[in-house]
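User: tokens in, sequence out, please.
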């Protein structure tokens, strides 16, 4: 059995006026040598971007970037000519490949809240890729919905890594099995909202638990809960 719990209050903090960020792992000015990622998962940033503000054109390289919008809308432009507005309930994917510049701005009228996730690709280089998709109509009530994967399972967005992100909305009092992973992979459960129990560990909003063994576990919702499950190889390449 190998479980490691991290509380929301243990995350890094950055406040930049229009940007309010919490970092699960070392990022920008927040550096914690014991929190450099989880296998191929490098970043989980919990961001609020105030309405009408955002990031100007800036570069990325050799990283798989997934944005999960939970509130408002965010406008994207990049050097490959992609342009789109991602709304709450949608997923945006950008493979930075050999290099790309992009900008992100919250649209006027409402703050944007999102999780920005970085995953190391299985190989560097290659042409940048971009995709956005709505998952609003997909059923994730008391079951896992695959958002991204390395093989397109369940019509998910395909990324350049043998990794997956699943989400679930679990009713109070309901238990669901946490999917097993192949050898060499780890699981990370991140609570977006609510309260859950895993193997006697109680997690609340923005807490996470890392699972690095192959045991079978069950997630019990102690209140209406929304959670993310990361399945990643435990090496960063």
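Assistant: Sequence out:
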């Amino acid at each position: 059995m190998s479980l490691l719990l991290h509380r929301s209050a243990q995350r890094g903090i950055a406040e930049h006026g229009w940007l309010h960020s919490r970092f699960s792992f070392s990022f920008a000015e927040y550096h914690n040598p014991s929190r450099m990622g989880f296998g191929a998962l490098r970043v989980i940033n919990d961001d609020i971007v105030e309405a009408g503000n955002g990031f100007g054109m800036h570069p990325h390289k050799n990283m798989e970037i997934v944005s999960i919008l939970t509130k408002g809308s965010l406008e994207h432009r990049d050097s490959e000519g992609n342009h789109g507005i991602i709304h709450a309930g949608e997923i945006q994917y950008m493979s930075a490949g050999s290099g790309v510049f992009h900008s992100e701005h919250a649209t006027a009228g409402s703050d944007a809240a999102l999780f920005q996730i970085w995953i190391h690709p299985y190989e560097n280089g290659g042409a940048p890729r971009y995709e956005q998709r709505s998952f609003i109509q997909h059923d994730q009530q008391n079951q896992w919905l695959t958002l991204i994967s390395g093989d397109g399972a369940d019509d998910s967005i395909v990324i350049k890594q043998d990794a997956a992100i699943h989400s679930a909305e679990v009713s109070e009092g309901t238990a669901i099995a946490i999917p097993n992973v192949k050898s060499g992979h780890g699981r990370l459960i991140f609570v977006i909202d609510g309260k859950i129990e895993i193997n006697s560990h109680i997690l609340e909003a923005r807490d996470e638990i890392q699972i690095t063994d192959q045991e079978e576990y069950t997630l019990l919702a102690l209140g209406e809960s929304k959670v993310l499950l990361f399945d990643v190889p435990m090496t960063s390449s």
